[in-house]
Amino acid sequence: MNIAQKYVAGLKKAYYENGGEKQWERFERAAHGIGREDREKLLVLYPDIPDSLLQLLDIADGTYWRKYSEEKIALLFLGSDIEEYPYFLLSAQQMIDTKDDFQTWGDYLINREFDDIPVDAGICNDLNQLHWLHFADCVNNGGTSQLYIDFSPSSEGKEGQVVRYLHDPDELVIIADRFDEYLQSLIDGDYDFVTEDCIEGWE
Length: 203
What we know:
Elements: H1 3-17, H2 21-30, H3 36-45, H4 51-59, E1 66-68, E2 71-73, E3 87-89, H5 92-97, H6 101-105, H7 107-110, E4 132-138, E5 145-150, E6 161-166, E7 171-176, H8 179-188, H9 196-201
Antiparallel strand pairs: 1-2, 3-4, 4-5, 5-6, 6-7
């Protein structure tokens, strides 16, 4: 069992333990993995994409209002270092479509325009060099928090580190050195973002 399979098995268990059997079974019936064309497009844009992220996409090609055949799925699938705060997994196509979105609005963070906004030193300060993979949006459609894999770190960072953006108060922080480490942290945290209240809100 690879890390992605282990993660999803634990996530299913967390849903069942919190009364989300119906929601999970609906997701499991509808979802399918990434198509060959989208996989190839992702690999062209992100040749160093972690195997574990591709393995997740092989299980489900997105949970963020993702239409599978005739069924649209919105399943809270990921967390972060923010306790009990859930995120959707983007589909491969959404990852492709949002490739350069951060550059259009996040310049003030990368350029460190405000001294009172925390930005980790491991994140580069050159907007033109920024190469991020946007893989998750938070529960309120990404307005408050988004997650990225960073392929363009500063000399103090590590290629492939996972970065969390948070709005109000704004901050940009590294939450894991690698995507595998990020998934393991969610496993170790017992999927604390899966709660009865959270599930009820998306039934």
